[in-house]
Amino acid sequence: MKNIAILGSTGSIGTQTLDIVAANPDLFNVSVLTANNNWELLAQQAREFNPKAVVISNRLHYDALKDALKDTGILILSDLKDLDFSDSTLDIDLVLTALVGYSGVLPTINAIKAKKTIALANKETLVVAGEIVTTLAKANDVKILPVDSEHSAIFQCLVGENRNKMKKILLTASGGPFRTWSQNDMKTIRVEDALKHPNWSMGAKVTIDSASMMNKGFEMIEARWLFDCAPSDIEILVHPQSIVHSMVEFVDGSVKAQLGVPDMHIPIQYALGYPERLSSPEFHLDWSKLHQLTFEQPDLIKFPLLSLAFSAIEKGGNMPCILNAANEIAVNAFLNRYIDFTEMPRMVEDIMTKVDFIKNPSLDDLIETNKISRQLAKDWIETH
């Protein structure tokens, strides 16, 4: 029996994780659930799974949640900072981090310090603080199990390879909804267009990042840290069918790939059950319908944010943190129709030139970098 804390239980990854928990009551128990705003769904989840504690990060909803759960005996907190992962009464074995964006960084670090296994669905944690997080995980002998489908695929390809040398990671991308759009058509993109992902069902922020291919840039940075390789050893391939979730090429020329239907239940289940594979009757490929698997190079002219991600990790230091902060503000501004889709990369690139570069940042440096970058990004929106 694994006792799980789910950070971001009301989001897409969180709700799918609870599907798996519900289907395997003899294997998993929920210790902690957290949410930001959706207190009503959090209350429903708490009644169904009976965790020892819940956290609602938006304090405006604390009283409503407390009233909704007043007869349960569940500990109710209003700040993730108050969640003590090392508290023996919570009995946490694994922390699944499914928070959106930068908000996942500090809770993940706190869980690592408490020596909890991490199932990582928050790629921004490694984008912002990859070196700090991976060094801390090694020092505390903590496993980081990837939940993103691409990183789960790479992880699975490497299982059993031991000392066999990897030559290259082949990181696949669907290409999003605008893969076949012309450069001129990109200027007409609406929010509704960008939220229509051809293959995956995800939250709004990740869906927009996928449409701009920034998501693939973040995944490249995450892979750099998870698998201890150089950015130059990661090749991105656009694979519109989203069946091959990623591949690994070895020094002898052999290539291993992980294939599956495009459904996040599969990589979530693999991370929760690792090192065992859990039985799943629902998520199986129909090979009679797989007539073609294609691959192509990404268009860096149409998707400049992908180039900016490579530039950020090559420079290193606090530059990926700047990239992430500016992008989060840009995505929010686009979703709220303050800027156009094609203005997002312009804004991000501009902010990357304005924030002071720190070669070897501490965690405090990154926290300050995030704060400054966000403010500059907000100022940019107001003046353009």
Q: Whole-number radius of gyration?
A: 20 Å
Q: State the order of secondary-structure elements, H for helix, E for strand.
A: EHEHEHEEHEHEHEHHHEEEHHHHH
- Number of helical elements: 14
Strand content: 5-15%
* Counted beta strands: 11
Question: How are strands sequenced across the largest beta sheet?
Answer: 4-3-2-1-5-6-7
Give a verbal description of the structure:
The chain has helices spanning 12-23, 39-49, 62-68, 105-113, 124-139, 149-158, 191-194, 204-212, 214-226, 265-273, 304-315, 319-335, 343-354, 363-383, and strands at 2-7, 28-35, 53-56, 75-77, 94-97, 117-120, 144-146, 166-173, 234-238, 244-250, 255-259. The chain has 384 residues and is α/β, with parallel strands linked by helices. The strands form 2 sheets. The chain has a 7-stranded parallel beta sheet, sandwiched between helices. Strands 9-8-10-11 form a 4-stranded mixed beta sheet, covered by helices on one side. Helix 12 (319-335) packs antiparallel against helix 13.
Chain-wise SSE layout:
Elements lengths: L1 E6 L4 H12 L4 E8 L3 H11 L3 E4 L5 H7 L6 E3 L16 E4 L7 H9 L3 E4 L3 H16 L4 E3 L2 H10 L7 E8 L17 H4 L9 H9 L1 H13 L7 E5 L5 E7 L4 E5 L5 H9 L30 H12 L3 H17 L7 H12 L8 H21 L1
Parallel strand pairs: 1-2, 1-5, 2-3, 3-4, 5-6, 6-7, 8-9
Antiparallel strand pairs: 8-10, 10-11
Helix pairs in contact: 2-3, 4-5, 5-9, 5-12, 8-12, 9-11, 11-13, 12-13, 12-14, 13-14
